[in-house]
Amino acid sequence: MNKFSIALLSASLLAPIAQANNFDDANDAINYRQSAFGLISYQFGDMSAMLKGKKEFNQEVFASRAANVAALAKLPHEGFIPGSDQGKTDAAAKIWQDKADFDEKMSTFENNAALLAQAAQSGDKNKMKQAFMETGKSCKGCHDVYKKD
Fold first, then answer.
1. Residue 128 to residue 125: CA distance in whole angstroms
2. Which among 15, 21, 48, 101 counts the fewest CB atoms within 10 Å?
3. pLDDT 10s per residue in the chain (149 long)?
């Protein structure tokens, strides 16, 4: 686990997340958001495997993963600073050309992730699956438009 992953995990567990940044340069912002997305991907992948029957479904683990996604979903947005479309990134320049739409899509993802965490607490597998699908759609909706091919 690299220093950015450790920082992200610590921040998500120990403090409320603010939409502010203090990046020294675009590469720091890129590393930060990529680390956050990597952690989200791991959590999401584990939940997907449980819902698809590829892993034994464990309510406690699923709820923990969903809560982690809800906390982590707040992190990547702040890493999209001006100039961070350059370098080793899949972020399309269109993010900064249509920032309002991008911000709205990120907000939708954050909201859906929070609803997923809520559904996971219910114990109702159908609610969890529906919330999982909505969260996934919000990921894909952003990737389809704002991620380089």
1. 5
2. 15
3. 444 444 444 444 444 444 467 888 999 999 999 999 999 999 999 999 999 999 999 999 999 999 999 999 999 999 999 999 988 999 999 999 999 999 999 999 999 999 999 999 999 999 999 999 999 999 999 999 999 97
